[in-house]
Amino acid sequence: GVFLGQDKQGMKDILDPNFDAHLFSASEIFGLSYTRLLSDYRGDRGEVIQKQAKELRQRSKPYTFKPFYGGTKGTPGEERYYAAFRKRYAGVHAEQENWIAEVARTGRLITPWGMRFTWRTYVDKRGVLMNRANFKPVGPAISNYPVQNLATAEIVPIAIVALYKRCKAEKLDVKFVNTVHDSVVCYIGEGLKNYVAFKRAAERAFTTAVYEHLSIFYNIEFNVPLGVEMVTGDRWGEGTETKYDDVDNWSEET
């Protein structure tokens, strides 16, 4: 979403180690100071308060990225956050409004990578653009489809295929078991050398390989840093989490 809107604030937040999107949503939803909540989350006032901050952050997660997908309604606290999101990320919001205007005018939306979405619409008495197929507001879908499509239907498959090819080329002891949304589940053979090689392959597959593929085959210069999180353990969803963010290779001028 930040890339599609070329949102300057969003790019700054991604590069800012002191910014946490889920704490931002929590601060707005629960009417708290972001600075204080960040301090509490880091444990500056003790473990009890830190635990409370973590709970608030967790409770806010379902709403943090909802505005990317056209969400506007909810509790007063949630709607306060959605308004704050639109103000903070004006570039994202403006681009979503442009998409809605385009669909209202032409009945279709064509993404920069060539995907076409079409709707049969009408404007109701309230002035809301509606979908003739289900008589529901079409704005959320228009706001959602390009974001979800680029992230989940384009970038993630590119990364997974790149990871598979790299593992095969290096003859790593890895079995690809499943994919879920933006995650891939693998069995990794024993041995530190094998694990380290897989970790490096994953880091590259979900960052550099994506940038290169988008540039070569989509003619898209992706100027927002990506990252990957890996959970290593004996069971799916359990274990030690490590993160790799490509932020170190970027600057605000990148």
TrEMBL record:
**One annotated GO molecular function:** DNA binding
The UniProt entry, under Pfam families, shows: DNA_pol_A
InterPro entries for the chain: DNA-dir_DNA_pol_A_palm_dom, DNA/RNA_pol_sf
**Record Gene3D superfamilies:** 3.30.70.370, 5' to 3' exonuclease, C-terminal subdomain
Q: DNA-directed DNA polymerase family A palm domain: from which residue to which, for each copy?
A: 1-192
State any GO BP term from the record. Answer: DNA replication
Instruction: Please give the name of this protein.
Output: DNA-directed DNA polymerase family A palm domain-containing protein
Its taxonomic path starts at:
unclassified sequences, metagenomes, ecological metagenomes
